[in-house]
Amino acid sequence: MDRYSPRAGETLRRRRVWLRWGNRVLSEAENWYVPERLPPAMRDAIADGVRPYGAVVASLRPQRITTVALRADKAGENGAQAEAVLAQLARIEGFSPPEAFMLHIHAVMMASGIVLADLREHYRRELLR
Questions:
Q1: Rounded to an integer, what is the distance from CA 102 to the centroid of its chain?
Q2: 88-126 tens-digit pLDDT
Q3: How many CA atoms within 13 Å lie on the side-chain side of 73?
Q4: Spatial separation of the C-alpha atoms in residues 116 and 59, rounded to whole Å
Q5: Which helix (H) or strand (E) holds 37?
Q6: Is the separation of the CB atoms in 19 and 55 below 8 Å?
Q7: pLDDT-based confidence at 59, cuts 50/70/90?
Q8: N or C: which end of the chain has fewer CB within 10 A?
Q9: Total-model pTM
């Protein structure tokens, strides 16, 4: 995780998420977060994996800040940044291959100046058909 690192006594956790509409997968994402930056009840709710991360932390009124938005059809315009995003995606076991996606978004979620999560979202080509 390159946006922030856990401090002493903190742990880094990862959730993999597939956003679906019926049986159709619309996006695949990774959510990296540090549980110790959340109240205990939120940690437990996230750990059970049932509720979406954003729904669990909503009462903190987090701000989502997009740091990278990369369209696959314009990857050549983004050079090294595009190569890095696609290489990172290719290494994720269990996700679709990079060519299955049209849009890649990297964002952070912050509340009260504290980074809560690092989000890496990949949207399927089928969305644009």
A1: 16
A2: 766 777 777 777 777 777 888 899 888 999 888 888 887
A3: 5
A4: 13
A5: none
A6: no
A7: very high
A8: C
A9: 0.77
